[in-house]
TrEMBL record:
This is C2 domain-containing protein. Residues 146-263, 345-453 form the C2 domain. Gene3D superfamilies: C2 domain (2.60.40.150). SUPFAM superfamilies: C2 domain (Calcium/lipid-binding domain, CaLB). It comes from Streblomastix strix.
């Protein structure tokens, strides 16, 4: 399906035998149109004299000429018959030269083949040498990697990883109603610790919460990271994981380090690879952040620290007990001091009372110039009917009763009461009471005073 074509890399030989050519000195070149179904159609033909090309390659470019009914070229002139052009190079080689060329070509071909075989053998040897070099280099790299891994693994000793200053922030909302109920899970293989559960928050600080997990290289199987997972607790369904991070513990060996990391989506369980998160590789996946400080200590140091902590606690406990005993002794001493002081005061009071009582001798107490004023009104109708009552123990004296008044002078009235210390039982006062007399009901006490004799 073309009108122009270059038959690249196509070469052909024809044998020219003058005995069979019957004096004909031209090569006939025909151009055909190939048909798959019917008969091929001839497009045209050219005749070329071979002698000018004897032992010399000649480039030929001729217009294609039509054939007549007898199958002969209608014209030997190179005129454009609108049938197209044909181009090719041609060389006419005598038989002896041709055979020599064939032999030379065969020798050259054989030499080339041998050279190719040798080159192929060299290439194959180089390929095998390169494969061996690559294999040796790979073995060297694997051995180097194995040694590096062994050296690295040797740094990951059995010990405890401690966590504190734990918090979460900007967590993704997991519940349809409300926020989230987050808790943090720290995992080292089968060893794990969980924080308390916060309620209905997206930000939370787990104050005063500290945890530690055991890191055992024989169990971890070469894994050097602690998994930190943040969940939303659901009371009805399964807890939802919000996100997780993996943190290499070695940088925290014997030194507390603070971590603030973006949570990452949970990895496929089929993917056993574990990539440690750092601040440079930890990208924000809009799941929130988890923060904590981490310290990785060896088992020996942990035991040493544990013993020191136990000794410290015991020392504090002993100190507390000692302080408590001292405080109790101080309290006892203070109680005893107060008891002694109270006894001393009571003894002092007793002596003062005895001295005071000694001044209160048996005698008569006289009352005169008696009056009342501004008394409280006790009756609904009218004023008061007041009288005054003087009492010394069981002995009493009463004034006359005034009528319908709030102020009154008991003129020319005087009274005496016997004061007997033996009867008064240490009481040094005379009781003075003012009453409102009622003829029908009980007398009403308006008020009273006690007066030291």
């Amino acid at each position: 399906n073309t009108l122009d074509y270059d038959y690249t890399n196509e070469e052909y030989d024809l044998i020219y035998n003058p005995l069979k050519m019957q004096g004909k000195k031209e090569v006939e070149v025909e151009v055909w149109d190939y048909n798959k179904v019917g008969k091929n159609d001839i497009i045209g033909v050219v005749n070329i004299d071979i002698l000018p090309s004897k032992n010399k390659e000649t480039q030929i470019e001729l217009f294609i000429q039509p054939k007549n009914d007898k199958g002969e070229v209608q014209s030997n002139l190179n005129t454009d018959q609108k049938l197209g052009k044909i181009s090719f190079s041609m060389i006419y080689i005598p038989e002896d030269d041709y055979l020599k060329r064939l032999r030379d070509a065969e020798l050259k071909k054989r030499k080339t083949e041998q050279e190719l075989i040798r080159q192929k053998e060299l290439e194959e040897q180089r390929r095998l040498d390169e494969i061996k070099r690559i294999a040796d280099e790979q073995r060297r790299l694997e051995e180097e990697k194995r040694r590096q891994q062994e050296a690295l693994n040797a740094q990951y000793i059995k010990g405890y990883v401690q966590f504190k200053n734990i918090s979460v922030s900007n967590l993704k909302k997991m519940d349809f109603i409300g926020k989230s109920d987050p808790f943090v899970l720290f995992k080292a293989g089968e060893s794990s610790q969980q924080t308390t559960v916060a309620k209905n928050v997206l930000d939370y600080q787990y104050l005063n919460e500290e945890y530690e997990v055991l890191y055992d290289p024989s169990v971890m199987q070469g894994k050097h990271e602690i998994e930190v997972e943040v969940y939303d607790q659901d009371s009805v369904t399964k807890n939802d994981i919000i996100g997780a991070v993996s943190v290499d513990i070695l940088p925290s060996l014997n030194q507390e380090r603070q971590f603030d990391l973006f949570l990452q989506p949970q990895k496929d369980k089929k993917d056993d690879s574990s990539k440690s998160e750092t601040s440079s590789t930890n990208s924000d996946k809009k799941l929130g952040k988890v923060s904590f400080s981490m310290n990785y200590i060896s088992e020996q140091d942990w035991i040493k620290n544990f013993k020191q902590e136990q000794l410290r606690k015991q020392k504090i406990k002993d100190e507390i007990i000692k302080q408590k005993e001292l405080e109790e002794q101080k309290i006892k001493d203070e109680i005893q001091r107060r008891l002694d002081e109270q006894k001393r005061i009571e003894e002092e009071k007793r002596k003062q009372k005895e001295a005071l009582d000694a001044q209160y001798i048996k005698g008569v107490v006289q009352f005169k110039n008696i009056s009342v004023s501004n008394l409280k009104k006790m009756d609904l109708i009218g004023k008061n009917d007041p009288f005054v009552l003087f009492k010394a123990g069981e002995l009493t004296k009463q004034t006359t009763t005034a009528k319908n008044t709030l102020n009154y002078d008991y003129l020319n009235e005087s009274y005496e009461l016997l004061y007997d210390p033996a009867v008064m039982q240490g009481k040094h006062e005379i009781e003075v009471e003012v009453y409102d007399q009622d003829s029908l009901t009980k007398n009403d006490l308006i008020g009273a005073v006690n007066v030291d004799v």
